[in-house]
Amino acid sequence: MRPWHDGVNALAAAIPLSAPVYLLMDLVGNPIPFVLGWFGGGSVRFTKGVPPPVESQLLAYVLVAMLGYVGTRKLVPKIKVYTLRRGISGKDLGKRGTSLADKDVPEALGIVPGAVFLICLTFCLVGYATTNPSKLLDCNSALLSICFMLFLGFSDDVLEWPWRYKLLLPTVASLPLLCCYDGSTSIVVPIPMRSWLMNEGSLTTFGWLLGHIVTVDQNANGAILNLGMLYLVYMGMLAVFCTNAINIYAGINGLEAGQSFIIGCAVLLHNLIEIRDNEAYRENHLFSIMIMLSFVGVTLGLLGHNWYPASVFVGDTYCYFAGMTFAVVGILGHFSKTLLLFFIPQVLNFLW
Amino acid sequence: MRPWHDGVNALAAAIPLSAPVYLLMDLVGNPIPFVLGWFGGGSVRFTKGVPPPVESQLLAYVLVAMLGYVGTRKLVPKIKVYTLRRGISGKDLGKRGTSLADKDVPEALGIVPGAVFLICLTFCLVGYATTNPSKLLDCNSALLSICFMLFLGFSDDVLEWPWRYKLLLPTVASLPLLCCYDGSTSIVVPIPMRSWLMNEGSLTTFGWLLGHIVTVDQNANGAILNLGMLYLVYMGMLAVFCTNAINIYAGINGLEAGQSFIIGCAVLLHNLIEIRDNEAYRENHLFSIMIMLSFVGVTLGLLGHNWYPASVFVGDTYCYFAGMTFAVVGILGHFSKTLLLFFIPQVLNFLW
After folding, report:
1. How far is B200 from chain A (nearest CA, A)?
2. According to DSSP H, which parts of chain B are helical?
3. Residue A321: what pLDDT?
4. Is B119 near chain A, with CB under 8 Å?
5. If contacts are CB pairs under 8 Å, which of residues 85-114 in chain B contact chain A?
6. How confident is the model over A304-321, as a mean pLDDT?
């Protein structure tokens, strides 16, 4: 390992992060009045019951994410002593033939970013509770689902569950999320398929049959299908898919954390663009940004230790935690279909 | 071990449970119309937005608790194979001199009642979401705090954290609870101490000094102190105390689970009496009953395996999980001061 490796790696990590950071700086502009506003000074005033300005929220989330990065970065070397002592470790097959091949690499270090992430989000939750209680329920259920998966992932690393538990428990873990989902359950039908449902203002036979399971919006001339409960089932399956998707590409140094980092940056970029261009769903995207910023922060902190030559392995703990985090932002940010676009490599691997 | 031991143990377990069960049967009366009501029949009808009748809720919680009991009872022998394989086990010092002394006893089996409990409550949460959304936030934050403690407890059993983490993390885990607390932050001042605060309708010097930290209600003539933020701090400390309180008396077969079982039954009895006699805070006590019934169910399932001669140890996992559960019902059920009465042996040991 040569010293300039670190510089190259830092540069590589900066590439996916550059676009969201640029947009963030563009959105926030001059941060000083908002920072002053937190301490009761400056021109930005807070009113109880009214959410603070977007810029102020973004700045606070960035700050929490930075603390998350530093915390993970510093804690991983400390905690790896504990997992190594317990024998939760593996051999790195990618280092065969080198002098590092026989060294035990501590496993399941995903517990550190996971725990730091939970702590970060708990502080965001406190912020929500004091300024913007309308999103408190979403934030709670998001944390609950992620915490449940973190627990499941860590116990899987330690005890190695059989497959039936691994499929059953994520489904249960996603239930709180679905209970709190209050968004639309409708989907827009692609234009060429609309004529299958409606023809000259009346339902076709296929549309009539389909009408027994879902609601075809006859006013929209077949353009909108309200899936109702089926949409919730789809979202539950999305959660199970996401938790396993990160695990699909696993086993190479830095691959789990690396792909999560890139997907996280992509989601962040999507949210920031939506906030800039679209007033309507701003709150949902801000919520997603809150979660994603902390997530990207802790992932980056982990990546530094997990990159080749890895000094720690992330384990199922990290894969489950990361997957559930993406499912949570997709569902509660109301962009669960867009989310799947970011998962194309994993979807392809899954379908193969 | 003789076969009549099982019978004696079952009888011993039935004693603390008898009073709550009697009160439950008294409250519910004839269950048939309510059970029929769940399936859309019978004379009991549900209206959307209106909470279902108390009897119907109680019956549903009893059913969930029974499933929790059966699930824990069946799963513990299966899961103990996994923890034993990983070497998470200990020697039982209470069996020295017997033929069982050298046998490894699997540790950290509190993970089973914990996970079953979370699943039970998730289903209760789904029930809440569909019938009584006003308590959804409470239920989510309760589950979040308990899940966080379960995760912390299990990772402590596996990795053996130093003390500083064990004090810091329960504090963070209790934050979501405090954020969602919307009850009173006032306390009633005992009669002999009221004259210290107010004298002939005006504040005394002591009362005036105290008024800088808390709010003295001058209309109530010193009878009521509004502690505000201090009350939240007290509740946060209660959570930390409870999580460690069960651990104070630990180390003898069945002691952790046994004391939790008895405290659980006592809390249940308190709630049931309040529901019978007092209309005002019925919803909070029902919420507490929901949590406590599932908790008593899974604890009883565990106790069967943990009673002398124990075939499993419960570990810190169970102690933390049980303690946080009590803190949660105390805080969200708004009887945090009464709760401490049930913890008198632990408080004495703590102060000693």
Report:
1. 37
2. 3-28, 32-38, 54-85, 111-131, 136-159, 163-180, 191-197, 205-210, 229-248, 255-277, 282-306, 315-332, 336-342, 344-351
3. 94
4. yes
5. 85-88, 111
6. 87
- Quote the minimal CA–CA distance from A150 to chain B in Å: 8
- A144 interaction partners in chain B (CB closer than 8 Å): 140, 143-144, 147
pLDDT at A42: 64
Q: List pLDDT tens digits, range B30-82.
A: 888 888 777 776 666 666 667 778 888 899 999 999 999 999 999 999 998 99
| Stronger pLDDT, B111 or A195, i.e. the higher one | B111
Q: Which residue of A has its CA nearest to B168?
A: A119
> Which residue bears the tokens 């499929």?
A167
Beta-bridge partners for A224:
A188
**Residue B168 touches chain A, beta carbons under 8 Å:** no
Compute the nearest-CA separation of B315 from chain A (Å).
14
Compute the average pLDDT of residues A1-12.
72
A67-81, A193-207, A217-231, B267-281: which is most confident: A67-81
Report the alpha-carbon angle B67-B69-B74, nearest 5: 95
Tokens of A230: 């089926």
Provide the pLDDT for residue A43.
65
How high is the pLDDT of residue A345?
85
Chain B within 8 Å of A78 (Cβ-Cβ)? Answer: no
The rounded distance, in Å, linking the Cα atoms of A67 and B241 is 28
Within chain A, residue ranges assigned H as helices are 4-28, 32-38, 54-85, 111-131, 136-159, 163-180, 191-197, 205-210, 229-248, 255-277, 282-306, 315-332, 336-342, 344-351
| C-alpha distances out from residue B207 to B46, B186, B210, B216, B232, Å | 51, 15, 5, 7, 21
Mean pLDDT of chain A: 84
Instruction: Give the residue from B116, B169, B179, B332 with the most A CB atoms within 10 Å of its CB, the best one to mutate.
Output: B179
Whether the ipTM is more than 0.90: the answer is no
A309 burial class (0-12, 13-18, 19+ CB within 10 angstroms)?
Answer: middle
